[in-house]
Amino acid sequence: MSGKQVFQIETKELLEDLGTSFKGLTSQEAEKRLLENGKNKLAEDKKRPLILKFFDQFKDFMVIVLLGAAVIAFIAAFLENKPEEYFEGVLIIAIVVINAILGVLQEAKAEEALASIKKMSHPNATVLRDGKEIIIDVEDLVVGDIVVLQAGDYMPADVRIIESINL
């Protein structure tokens, strides 16, 4: 492409640069581009190990305050030489650990719910392939696809509008 921005290039020139036409790509060309460029989706982050999620629960300010209180309770029990008062420190630490476990469980449930919602809401796009309108999975869009949008359609990717009526 020339040094111009995509929106500044004439439509016919842009179609030539992208190796497509008003009839869309051929199925073979679309498959080739999909293999070369990959799916039309955002890269997903690697899942953090469970142990790191557990330790993340201890970064909260109130948890740090509680751990400080537990340390103070241990020091006070030690200085006063009263072993029965170690119970307060142990109780505070037990509460913090239980809270961290519950936090990790809640986070795992939320991630599962989000994953199932993503699977359920699998958007499609109407494109021109081999001169015909077909419906494909949004992840299968490739550079050079001609996307056909109707009122209320989901915008499946960055697109250049080449023709519109009452937009």
Structural class by helix and strand composition:
mainly alpha
Question: How do the SSEs run, as a string of H and E?
Answer: HHHHHEEE
N-to-C CA distance: 27 Å
Task: Output the radius of gyration.
Answer: 29 Å
Number of helices: 5
Question: Could you give a quick summary of the protein structure above?
Answer:
Helices cover 48% and strands 9% of the residues. With 167 residues, the chain is mainly alpha-helical.
Give your account of this protein's structure.
With 167 residues, the chain is mostly helical. Helix content is 48%, strand content 9%. It has 5 helices and 3 strands. Strands 2-1-3 form a 3-stranded antiparallel beta sheet, with no helix packed on it. A hairpin with a 2-residue loop joins β1 and β2. α3 (50-56) packs across α5 (86-120) and α4 runs antiparallel to α5 (86-120). It starts with 10 loop residues before the first helix and ends in a 19-residue tail after the last strand. The mean pLDDT is 88.
